[in-house]
Amino acid sequence: MSYTLPDWARVTTKRREHIERVTRLLEQWADALNLGGDERTLWHDAGLLHDALRDAPELELRRLSGDATRPVDLLHGPAAAARLRELGESRTALLEAVRAHTVGCASWDRVGRALYMADYLEPGRKFSPVDRAYLAANVPNDFEGTFRQVVRARLEWSVRDGKPLFPETVELWNSLL
Description:
Layout: H1 13-32, H2 37-49, H3 58-65, H4 76-86, H5 92-100, H6 110-121, H7 129-138, H8 143-160, H9 167-175
Helix pairs in contact: 1-2, 1-6, 2-5, 2-6, 3-4, 4-5, 5-6, 6-7, 6-8
């Protein structure tokens, strides 16, 4: 499959490399899980599009997302989902995966959960490489258990670093209890 981003994407070279790693990881998991055509394509597209507007100007992100108050680094998902919807994208699972990939969503199906994990576990990230590689390798064997571990790790990181917990993230965690 192609790693060509849409012409409306706003990403740096470094971000493009991250997108490709996330997409490759999703494709590896899709292969290991023997996913069929439509679902496999959905996973690929989620990886490719999740950060398509990550490096867009703040004004563009706020306009597309319709959000004037959230931190700007949380707006690229909602902005990309809105742009996709404007262009006629109708796959709800894809739109929700892209929209909420930074904060989580309790009602996600498998593609949202897979994207959330891949964005965190992709091998280019520098922190906890051994632990993250172990989790990434375990996704095909225990998808839901690994998802729970990733949500926990991301929550622990936020608390440890004094970052805010967003309502969607707390709702996602509570849905796993």
